[in-house]
Predict the 3D structure of the following.
Amino acid sequence: MLKFKEKAIESFLILCSLVTVFTTLGIVLVLATESVRFFQEVSIVEFFTGTEWTPLFAEKRFGILPLVCGTLLTTVIAIAVALPLGLTIAIYLNEYAHPKFTAFVKPTLEVLAAVPTVVYGFFALTFVTPLLQSFIPNLSGFNALSAGLVMGVMIIPYISSLSEDALRAVPKSLREAAYGMGSTRLQTAFRVMVPAASSGIIVSVILAISRAIGETMIVAVAAGQEPRLTLNPIHSIETITTYIVQVSMGDVPRNSLEYSTIFSAGITLFIFTFILNNVSFFIKKKFQQKYE
Amino acid sequence: MYKLEARSVNLYYGEKHALKNISMAIEANTVTAFIGPSGCGKSTFLRCFNRMNDLIDNVKITGDILIDGRNVYKSKIDVDEHRKKIGMVFQKPNPFPKNIYENVAYGLRIKGVNNKAVLDEAVERSLKQAALWEEVKDDLKKSALSLSGGQQQRLCIARAMAVEPSVILMDEPASALDPISTSKIEDLIYELKSKYTIVIVTHNMQQAARISDKTAFFYLGELIEYNQTATMFTNPSKEQTQNYITGRFG
């Protein structure tokens, strides 16, 4: 009887873990089959090299580059904000701040990641953009700059929290060695602690990039819906995620070519984040055991 | 004038009275061993000399520590500058995650020395002094973490010596090493005596007897006895010392 109970529990646990595996497989399968249908009608070369994306217009063009460009532009701006700030915060909390202060500030910072992204989106649209417009007169109402900046703020805790964990995991003996040699706090932080924690810090940045690439609401609300191949952040652009939202919500008939574009866009996005996740997994695995 | 001097040093970890009224003087170019059972305060006392206890919260220290007659706990003193003059070797080898060359050059680099000729000379001299040069001279660019434990510890000694401190503090430098590496480190300590003043904490009484000129025995935060090593091990004046070195406790 007891044996049976054990077996039942075990099967239940396996079932639970299989749910996640099958969900992932299902997503990949749907993305793949729908994309195959899309690529039967649109050449894959045009898709990856075309510089115009106008599936919803009378004259349809299917070049994903403008969407990729929009995604990368907002992501780069976000990382440019989050990396220096996040790393500085992590170093401050680890090397300078009183432990009690760290214990209070770290969870507080993590609240930033818990704010609903739609709130960030409206913050970008109704506060940051008007503010920026007072410095940059020809900034368009929807633009990559303010969406990117606000997204940067949102992902700060990813970098600061995970980097702080990585710094904290550096053996105490290394810090003692650094101070024992007469290093100042700044020298200890930048010459010893950061290099020793580099794999964890890189992983935190990659996760933040991954998060920024997949972010939808902020860019959908504040960055605009104009696919444009530009690196100038003052213009309205469109990211891959925004396009998917736009089509999913719109009046596009199911099973039309326009409809299947969201799957091709989706799989492009998926490939990006998939690669990044694997890179971070690889870095973690390769460097993790160095300081045991 | 003594090289190192402690005058009525008391140290508290929060409520705990970890060092009780310790006074002692150490002469230049000698090896002094601190012995005693775990938790007796010998490492804590060692770390007073380069103010490493500052890194721990809730530590309060009273009394004076003098190096070359200068009080190191005066608020005016620059702690980082002070630590640069005192080398420290720790229990576990703790090389930086850099190559061998950069590990040894670290102390000079943080002083702002970037002249390659100066660094090359210091790296070679220090590695030779630490008896590691012959083993690593062909691949100085190799990661320090790829060395064996004994080599890493000699590298840490080289790193400490590269800035030419006058004092080297060693906190159980051989306790994590195999017997062969241990004997290499002991030989090294013996040779370094002519240039440096060395204070070594050890759990190993034979080691203390082999390498030190004077020995201090600590027990429960007190300095029980401090004398010539030879006298200490053959004819201790306190009963507690006698009991400890004959292995009756500790």
